[in-house]
Amino acid sequence: MARFSLRGFVYVLIVLLGLFSAAPNILPQSLKQQLPDWYTSNTLLLGLDLQGGSHLLLAADTHELLAKQLDSLAADLFSELRAQNIRYSDSHIVNNKDGEHQRVFTFRDEIDARKIAAAAFSVSAQPSGGSALDVKIKQHTVTLTLDEQYTKQLLKDALGRSVEIVRKRLNETGLTEPTVTLQGKEAILVQMPGVSDPASVKRLLGTTAQMTFHWQADSRSGPSMTRIDEAGNLYRLEQKVALKGEHITDAAGELSSETGQPVVTFRLDSAGAKQFAAMTRDNIGRVLAIVLDDKVITAPVINSTIPGGRGEITGNFTLPEASNTALMLRTGALPIPLSIIEERTVGPDLGGDAIQAGIQSGVAGAVLVLMCMVAIYGRWGAIASFALCINMALLFGALTLFDATLTLPGIAGLILTMGMAVDANILVNERIREESKKGRPPVSAIEVGFAKALATIVDSNFTTLIAVSLLFMFGSGPVKGFAITIALGIVSSVFTAVALTKMIMLKVAKAKQVSAREYTPLDFTSPLLRLSDKLVGFNFIAKRKIAFFISVVLTVVSIALFIKPGLEYGVDFTGGTIIEVTAPNLSIDELRQVTQDEGFSHIAIQEYGDQHRYLLRAPISADNAAQGAKHNNAAQIEQLKQVISLTDNEVTFLKVDMVGPKVSDGFTELSILALLIAGAGMLVYLWIRFETHFAMAALLTVILDLTKTIGFFVVSGVEFNLTAVAALLALIGYSINDKVVVLDRIRELLRLDASKPLSVIINQAVNSTLSRTVFTSLTTLLALLPMAWLGGTAVESFALPMVFAVVIGTSSTLFITSSLMYWLGMQRQKKGKAQLKPTAEEIKASLAHIP
């Protein structure tokens, strides 16, 4: 008794901690003001799709950085070779088949080979003892490349510094809590809540701001280069950098006191000030060009020495441009060029609509599920409903505690979590009902029911967790939010169903039990339960050929539809741009005419939802795809928005999604990989927990479910995007969950009496779990239907396919899994193999009879 009380205390403590963590999300503002900030500030963060904002994915141009570094090291090597009188010639740049930058040159004397290798090591030696240059000498040809370890460290340092510089630039613009993080090996993710038009931010982040000072070339100059200014004037400048922009410690955009024109004033550090004074003193009368990102900003004639380390950059600036230039000079130059390869922008109005739709669909689904549980199981359903409410509170508490961000797919995950959490409660109640029918006292029936349901609950939820973990590993942004929500929901639902519900049910049962011999049977007599009992007795195996034929036909049709006409792929997979816009003063014909007149004839426009609401689709052009869409797509978005805004000054851009070809190709590969690994992971787990033919029956059925769901995408015209991939992985988890319950019951019945015909055992297993299968599907549908109806277009790629998947998955559990299990089991039986491997106890018992 003391042990149980301790366990109960721990359960209550966990619940209280969860409620304590979740409470700040719903506390009124008047109460929050009376509580400590460290507590009230710990609330659930809203994703950009709910509060509005912009998400930019910046790709680093590593090729340019590596090429520049190799050229610099090669120049140092050539200087050293000249110092040692080693003769070489034909230095040129090549790229190997992998696109790697190389420097190749030849030398004359065979004896110089060792000297060249030694010189390369001396000019590129690293503190670690290695060399930055990788030197390959074949006959009289030397090939220089960057060392692999040095390259990795160089890129890591460059990306790290780029993240800090991007963060500084955004902070100085006054944005509210921008988030800047590394994503993958060569990308930076920028999230800006509340920014619905990131045009100025994109210009700010897309500018490297590499500033250098160069003297105009004359007869005394060494190697020279040609640069151009904004007016188109050409300048022949010395390649040698007279002064680097890294010496600038402060800069400001302001109006000149002399001309009244916008200028950029700057101040140099002490070393830069001395160098600047000396170079201007020694070069009076010469032109000094200030070059920003390979473009001449200004090129004044130096008339006198400039002491004090202060200067002024004049140019054709507007005041905002001068301020932005000064900001970039203050925060430092990006060590590596960045380009926008993905943009997702959600306006605040659309975010508000998403929150409202999410809350409405969530509340409606929750109410329907709770009402259904009470209608089916009476007071025991009410206990399960109470546990479900605690489960949702714990889930909110966990999300808040881990600083998770709630996205619209995350809300979908909450709703699906509730639907799936009911499964464990239904499974437990059905087991308790079976034990009660056998005449067990209430307390005993509850204890045994929970014990028998535990293994099935763990198996079914663990398989779902495998699929969800892949969403987290391979997903991005909102899809990861969905994965985190489902994963935490699985943990909390297992705890509340197995631990909390059991504790409450035992308390209620013991309170009603008068004595050990006199007890009131558990009340499981609702009309729905009586109806489910009448359904038992159907011969599923007898209908296996018809069921399997229908399933295969639907699968073949789905595959044919997938081939032609195919899926309606979203920009996540095709690349391109989608803009959702409201233009009150433009009809669709006028909007189409305006875009065509301005050279955007490739853009498809369709009416979308409400009046004067349009969807614009722009595919990636062949030129953009060839160039990796580094700047073109982002620039085209701004041009297009400008054109529409000039035509209709009341236009509102609700949403912008731009995905470059590199990103879309990566999404395609990762999605396929995630589905394959999910299937393989579940197969391995089922092989461990069950026999091979059990695992194969479940996996083959899930594959058939997947193909039919893909066919549904084609027939319904629902867009196939990353949210759709989340739906497919959720389907895998849900469908396997369903199959495991039936397979677990087949295994249990085989262990009780393996002498019965396999068809009888399978039919008995399916019928004994029929009410659980039907009720679980019903409650899951009740949770999903409001989301499919009220959730809007943002979650239709998840909600609608999941509704279809629940229906098709339930029917396949009853008919296809049982059919495959029977066919595979009979094949095993013909080979003389037992349906089940012997347990450890059976092996031990058989060994005991051996003398």
Automatic annotation (TrEMBL):
Residues covered by the Protein export membrane protein SecD/SecF C-terminal domain: 339-507, 642-826
Keyword Cell membrane: yes
Presence of the UniProt keyword Transport in the record: yes
Annotated membrane topology: Multi-pass membrane protein
Keyword set, alphabetical order: Cell membrane, Membrane, Protein transport, Translocation, Transmembrane, Transmembrane helix, Transport
Protein name: Multifunctional fusion protein
Gene assigned in the entry: secD
Species: Alteromonas aquimaris
Predominant place of localization: membrane
Residue ranges annotated for the Protein translocase subunit SecDF P1 domain, each copy included: 161-216
Pfam families: Sec_GG, SecD_1st, SecD_SecF_C, SecDF_P1_head
Family under the similarity heading: Belongs to the SecD/SecF family. SecF subfamily.
Function recorded in the entry: Part of the Sec protein translocase complex. Interacts with the SecYEG preprotein conducting channel. SecDF uses the proton motive force (PMF) to complete protein translocation after the ATP-dependent function of SecA.
The protein's assembly and partners: Forms a complex with SecD. Part of the essential Sec protein translocation apparatus which comprises SecA, SecYEG and auxiliary proteins SecDF-YajC and YidC.
SecDF P1 head subdomain domain residues: 230-336
NCBIfam families to which the protein is assigned, alphabetical: 2A0604s01, PRK13024.1-3, secD, transloc_SecF
Subcellular location: Cell membrane
